[in-house]
Amino acid sequence: MASLERRGKQLGIVVDDGRALVVQLGMSGQLLVMHEAPATHRHVTWSLSGRGAEVLVFRDPRRFGGIVPHGRVQAMLDRWERELGPDGLDTARAPVERLCRGARHVKAALLDQSLVAGIGNIYADEALHAAGIRPSRRCNRLTHDEAARVLEEARRIMRRSVSQGGTSLRDHVLPQGDPGAARRLIQAYGRTGLPCHGCGLPLKGGRIAGRATTWCTKCQR
DNA sequence: GGCAGCCTGGTT
DNA sequence: AACCAGGCTGCC
Residue A171's closest CA among A122, A104, A119, A109? Predict the structure, then answer.
């Protein structure tokens, strides 16, 4: 194995001969490095040279994930450039202007990987809550400052969460099999009916952009 | 845009 | 037994 590439939720494993594998974890996928491969939902097992008897395993109970081979790294990178927006962790390239365009709900735009890559349902709710913006707000009703703020909050929250090992609710685990610790940072996602940490009022739940959504009707406008 | 569908497993 | 879930694609 030569190197790893990543853009948003796409992970590229580049091997020495220049070919690449794109791993998409989907909703339940796991990449594990272990001495003994897990017994269930094991889809691919690679043996790792120079790491004793350890193996790299792609495990995916729900099978929403997948692996796409590319003959050359550049083909993978070209495709990412075509289909994905700038990575959500990238400050310099935050697509503020683009987020202000169109009549769709801002939450739908945040989940659109071709606009900004890497934001999923949890971080969309968290970023909108932190930025004080209702998920149902139309993009073309956002001020430039609001669009910048929500992208900045998404970046900050994801960065912090990743540094804690990620937001493990059910299936996400780190390569050694341990859950990430960022679940305790959650302010909004999945807290429908529980008090808002900003104002104390119960958070509202609903469906926006086809996804379970939680927000505060007072703190988020 | 929304929404069904892909799959399995956990919860109500 | 029915419903729900962290993602994404493709169809209306």
Answer: A122
Which bases of chain B are under 7 A from a protein CB atom? 1-4, 6-10
Domains A3-83 and A96-215 fall in the same CATH topology = no
Which pLDDT does position A1 carry in this prediction? 58
For residue A214, which of A148, A196, A200 has the smallest C-alpha distance?
A: A196
Q: Which CATH architecture has domain A96-215?
A: Orthogonal Bundle (1.10)
Among the listed residues A186, A123, A185, the one whose alpha carbon sits nearest the alpha carbon of residue A153: A123
CB of A44 within 7 Å of some strand C atom: no
Give A114 CA → C1 C1' in Å. Answer: 39
Residue pLDDT, tens place only, A146-187: 999 999 999 999 999 999 999 999 899 999 999 999 999 999
Residues making up chain A, counted from first to last:
221
Give the closest nucleotide to A107 (alpha carbon vs C1'): B1
CATH number for domain A3-83, candidates 3.20.190.10, 3.30.200.20, 3.40.50.720, 3.30.70.20 = 3.20.190.10
Domain coordinates of chain A in residue numbers? 3-83, 96-215
Q: For residue A46, name the pLDDT band (cuts at 50, 70, 90).
A: very high
